[in-house]
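My current task is to audit a protein record that another person submitted. Alongside the sequence sits a line of tokens, each denoting a local backbone shape. Where you disagree with what is written, explain briefly why. This is what I was given:
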Amino acid sequence: MAKILDLFEAYESGDLPNEGGYIISNFFMGNSSYSRIEMVSYGNVKDIYRNDEGITFQADGLKMFVLVEPPSYSNKHIEPCYRDDAHKIPYRFKEVETYTTKRQEKIMVGKEPIETYTAFTIMNETGVNQSFIVHKSDGILKSLMNYYNQVLWKNINIGRTDANKASEMIGAVLPSIINPFA
């Protein structure tokens, strides 16, 4: 089973893996079930440091985004990449896999990861938003799929059956960012 820790606590305690790992950031909207989940697989680490905005990783990375859109979202006709910053992911509709739940929530995941070169910053946690570090381990794919399942079901309140199916859809994309820098 993978070791999952709060990112900022792991940084303070010196428990961030320098050889690479996975960072998952959850962005929840307080008054809606609209949510974004960003996962970064990183490697080739040169430096990790804290600044006013968050924690900066001087490393190569691949990012994968998941978007949960409630049926009441009024701008669902706008491409995800053209939405305001709080609702945006860097994909067009044709670049995402979409799962529609029984309650008409849409769960979108990018078909291909986005590559980051040289550096990326994980922003400070605010409100209910949170970031976690996941250490590389055997069975990482199963651990990550379980993580997504639990977040969809328990944090975002997607029905359990739909959360399982959506996690399988997300799991189909995960191999493209697992161990890319090995």
Summary: The first strand starts at residue 4 and ends at 6. The chain has one domain: 4-176.
